[in-house]
Amino acid sequence: MSESNFGASMVPMRILLIDDHPLVREGLAARIEAQPDLAVCGEASTMQAALVEFQESLPDLTIVDIQLEDGNGIDLIKDIHARWPHAKMLVVSAFDETLYAERALRAGALGFINKRELQDKVLEAIRSVLNGERYLSGKMTQHLLSQAVNQKGNPAADPVERLSDRELEVFQMIGNGMTTAAIARQLHLSVHTIDTHREKLRHKLGAKNGAELMKLAVQWMLENG
């Protein structure tokens, strides 16, 4: 929408920013507020604060990062989608889109954009999702098409792609050096449940023992974190 078409009586579309990095929120807010048809209605860095902000403001669009101070953005998207099924959400993340974009869409988001593309593509992504359209990079669209064509009998080449959302979250935490007890506290789960996830991870990723799983997780985080 051009500025000339933006009437004085038109209310800007309201956007909620959920990101654990203040500088990222500041940069996004500046780009959004520079548009006459868009406005930032709130910010949060944690899942708990995000839910409070969402319920109070009921934004037209919520921008969510994958990594938050107290949890995982995918879980937040699932929670918001369950409570407000028509909520429009766009994921903005530095994580690999080939691993996270499809998970975000399954959780309830309409789009995914990598933080490296923010300067050039963020407004395009915002307006696409506000219009109810899905937004992915051309590379990710082709990846999903190829995946759909080759799905029968051809498992993902990267075993990490086959992990469940929770298993991937635990795998990341292991890679960040967190103990089983610390992971349990962070996710509000029992130590026994985390041990079960670790065993499943070990088998799915072909690790012989806990030390090898730790090595795989640390290496993966260095390459993808």
Helices and strands, with pairings:
Layout: E1 13-18, H1 22-33, E2 38-44, H2 47-57, E3 61-64, E4 67-68, E5 71-72, H3 73-83, E6 89-93, H4 97-107, E7 111-114, H5 118-130, H6 138-149, H7 165-175, H8 180-187, H9 191-205, H10 210-224
What is the typical, i.e. mean, pLDDT?
A: 86
Q: How would you name the oligomeric state of the polypeptide chains in this document?
A: single chain
Shape call: globular
- Spatial arrangement of strands, main beta sheet: 2-1-3-6-7
Main β-sheet, in a few words?
Answer: 5 strands, parallel
The helix-and-strand class reads alpha/beta
Describe the structure.
With 225 residues, the protein is an alpha/beta fold. The chain is 53% helix and 13% strand. It contains ten helices and seven strands. It has helices at residues 22-33, 47-57, 73-83, 97-107, 118-130, 138-149, 165-175, 180-187, 191-205, 210-224; strands spanning 13-18, 38-44, 61-64, 67-68, 71-72, 89-93, 111-114. The protein has a five-stranded parallel β-sheet with strand order 2-1-3-6-7, sandwiched between helices. Helix 7 packs across helix 10, helix 8 crosses helix 9 (191-205) and helix 9 crosses helix 10. It is globular. The two termini are 36 Å apart.
